[in-house]
Each structure stands twice: as structure tokens, then as C-alpha cells.
Design a protein that fits this description.
Elements: H1 5-17, H2 30-40, E1 48-50, E2 53-56, H3 58-66, H4 69-77
Antiparallel strand pairs: 1-2
């Protein structure tokens, strides 16, 4: 379970859209956290990767949710398939 409010917000984005995602707690692993910061040249958490590509953090995803880009990207990433509705 996310311990950071920003990470919790991102979890809600993905839960609401219904696509699968993976949460990795880098607060437990400083080496992994530092490596991700170096790799992305992005100092803040959380870091969001979709289809192996880095997109940013909560501020970036917030904009993508607001303008519909996140759902479009997720549909394209998951072969155009919308998530199953429960």
C-alpha cells in the first residue's frame, strides 16, 4: 500500500481507469530509488512508467487524466482493449 499521498493519488487514477499496474515501493530500497532518479533524470516520486516508457510524476499524470491522454495511452498500450467492466 502506498505510503505517500502523491503515490496514493496515482493509484486512484489507475484504479478508476481499470487497467492493471504494478506498485513498487522504492522507499524501502534507496539504491533502486537513486538508480531510478539517475535513469530518468527526475528527482521526485512517484515515477510512472507505461509500456516501459517514463512519463513523469503525479503532476504530469494529473494533466494527462484531465485532458484524456492517460486513458488514450493506456488503451494503446493494452492493444486497444478497454478494461473489463466489473
Amino acid at each position: 500500500m502506498p505510503r505517500c499521498g502523491f503515490t496514493m493519488q496515482l493509484k486512484q487514477f489507475f484504479d478508476n481507469l481499470g487497467y492493471p499496474y504494478e506498485f513498487v515501493d522504492v522507499l524501502e530500497n534507496m539504491e533502486k530509488r537513486d538508480k531510478l532518479s539517475q535513469m530518468t533524470n527526475w528527482p521526485t516520486l512517484p515515477k510512472v512508467f507505461i509500456g516501459g516508457k517514463f512519463y513523469g510524476d503525479t503532476d504530469i499524470l494529473d494533466e494527462m487524466v484531465a485532458n484524456g491522454d492517460l486513458e488514450t495511452l493506456l488503451k494503446a498500450t493494452f492493444d486497444g482493449e478497454a478494461p473489463a467492466q466489473s
